[in-house]
Design goal:
The chain is α+β, with helices and mostly antiparallel strands. The protein has 14 helices and seven strands. Strand 2 and strand 3 form a beta hairpin.
Length: 350
C-alpha cells in the first residue's frame, strides 16, 4: 500500500475513472441500457433454473404442483407478445419496465394506474397490458418477492400476531400498536388508529422459507448439489465441510430417520445490523435474518444467490435479547417443517 500510494503515486493523467469497471454514463443512460433486459435471465435468477428447463416445462403436458404452475404462468407471460406482432415487449417485460420507472421517479399509485389506462387506449385492442397498479403488483408478486407484514410492539415486547392479532395495545407495557399523533384541539397525543388507514408503530417483514427451499430443488443447477453433503464430498478425514464436524455426526446419531434421507435440508442462521440509509448521521439500524443451506458444497452455500432472507427486523437500535420475539414466525415455520415437511419438485430426479 505504501509503495502504491506514496512511492508510485497516482498517474496524474488518470483523471477519468473508466479503466477499472467504473460507469461513465448517467443514471438515465443506465436506465435506457437496461430497459430491455432479458426476461429469461430474470426468471433464471428468480427460480435458479436454466432456460432449457423453462423449455421443458412449457413442452410438458402434465399436472404440476402449485409452485410449478407459478413458474409456468410466469414463463408464459414472459414469452407472450404484448400484442400480435410486438417483438420488443412481452406481457411481463412491459410491466417490469414501467414499475422500474415508477420506482425511479416516485410516481404515485393513482398516476401509474392513469398511465396504464392511457397506454391501453393507445395500444391495439388485443393488447395484454394490465390496466391497474394492483394487477401489476399481483403479477410481480409471483416472482417470489412477497412477504408477510407483522405488527410489533414499539418496545419489542410482543408481536401482534396469532393470539395478539386483534389487540391494539401491548399486554405487557400498554404501548399503542399504532403511531401516535398530536391532536391540536385536545392538545394531547392520541392513537393514530383514528387516522385511516392507521400507521403501525413497528412492522416486521417475514419471508416464508418454503419457497426458498423449493427453488433449490426445482433448479437443475442446484438439485444435485443439495445432496453434496452425502454423496459429493471426499471422506478423507479432513475437515472440509460442516458434514465432517462432530456436531453434524452427533445430530445424525440423535435423529437417524432424518439422516437417512440426504434430501432433508440442513440450515444455518446468521443476523447482523446495518444502516440502510446512505447518510451515516442516521442512527437507524435494520436487522436481516439470513438462512443458508449446508446441503450445498462449501464453495456455494455462502454465495449470495443461495442465501435466503427470512426476516427484516426494524429497530432504531439493536433488538438485543428481544430478537427472540422477532424470531417466533421463523421458529414456528421451522417446527412445522420438522414435524410435517413438504413435497416439492426435484429437477435432478424429475
Amino acid at each position: 500500500m505504501y509503495e502504491h500510494l506514496i512511492c508510485d503515486v497516482f498517474d496524474k493523467r488518470y483523471d477519468k475513472w473508466i479503466f477499472h469497471g467504473e460507469g461513465g454514463s448517467s443514471k438515465v443512460d443506465k436506465g435506457k441500457a437496461n430497459m430491455h433486459d432479458n426476461l429469461d435471465e430474470l426468471l433464471e435468477d428468480t427460480f435458479m433454473m436454466p432456460k432449457c428447463d423453462f423449455d421443458d416445462i412449457m413442452d410438458e403436458d402434465e399436472d404440476f404442483d402449485v409452485e410449478m404452475v407459478r413458474i409456468y404462468n410466469l414463463v408464459r407471460d414472459a414469452r407472450q407478445e404484448q400484442y400480435p406482432g410486438c417483438k420488443k415487449f412481452s406481457k411481463l417485460s412491459i410491466i417490469v419496465c414501467l414499475l422500474r420507472i415508477k420506482n425511479l421517479y416516485g410516481w404515485s399509485d393513482v398516476s401509474f394506474s392513469a398511465l396504464l389506462l392511457l397506454l391501453k387506449e393507445l395500444l391495439p385492442e388485443n393488447s395484454y397490458l394490465l390496466v391497474t397498479f394492483q394487477d401489476c403488483k399481483y403479477l410481480i408478486k409471483e416472482l417470489g418477492c412477497s412477504y408477510e407484514k407483522i405488527h410489533a410492539c414499539p418496545n419489542d415486547c410482543i408481536l401482534f400476531w396469532k393470539e395478539h392479532e386483534n389487540e391494539d395495545t401491548c399486554p405487557k407495557c400498554d404501548a399503542s400498536r399504532y403511531k401516535e399523533i398530536v391532536c391540536l384541539n385536545l392538545k394531547k397525543k392520541v392513537s393514530c388508529k383514528v387516522v385511516s388507514p392507521p400507521v403501525p408503530a413497528k412492522v416486521l417483514r417475514y419471508f416464508p422459507l418454503k419457497f426458498g427451499i423449493k427453488k433449490l430443488y426445482m433448479s437443475s443447477k442446484t438439485a444435485d448439489s443439495m445432496k453434496w453433503h452425502e454423496n459429493g464430498h471426499p471422506n478423507d478425514g479432513k475437515l472440509r465441510h460442516p458434514a465432517h464436524s462432530l456436531a453434524w455426526k452427533t445430530f445424525d446419531s440423535l435423529h437417524p430417520d432424518f439422516a437417512l434421507d440426504p434430501q432433508n435440508v440442513r440450515l444455518g442462521l446468521a443476523s447482523d445490523g446495518f444502516n440502510p440509509y446512505k447518510t451515516m448521521s442516521s442512527k437507524y439500524i435494520i436487522w436481516p435474518v439470513v438462512l443458508m443451506s449446508y446441503n450445498l458444497p462449501p464453495w456455494a452455500c455462502m454465495k449470495q444467490p443461495y442465501l435466503m432472507l427470512s426476516l427484516l427486523i426494524p429497530s432504531p437500535s439493536s433488538p438485543k435479547s428481544s430478537i427472540d420475539v422477532y424470531l417466533k414466525p421463523l421458529v414456528d415455520e421451522l417446527k412445522e417443517l420438522w414435524e410435517k415437511g413438504f413435497e416439492t419438485y426435484d429437477a435432478s430426479s424429475k
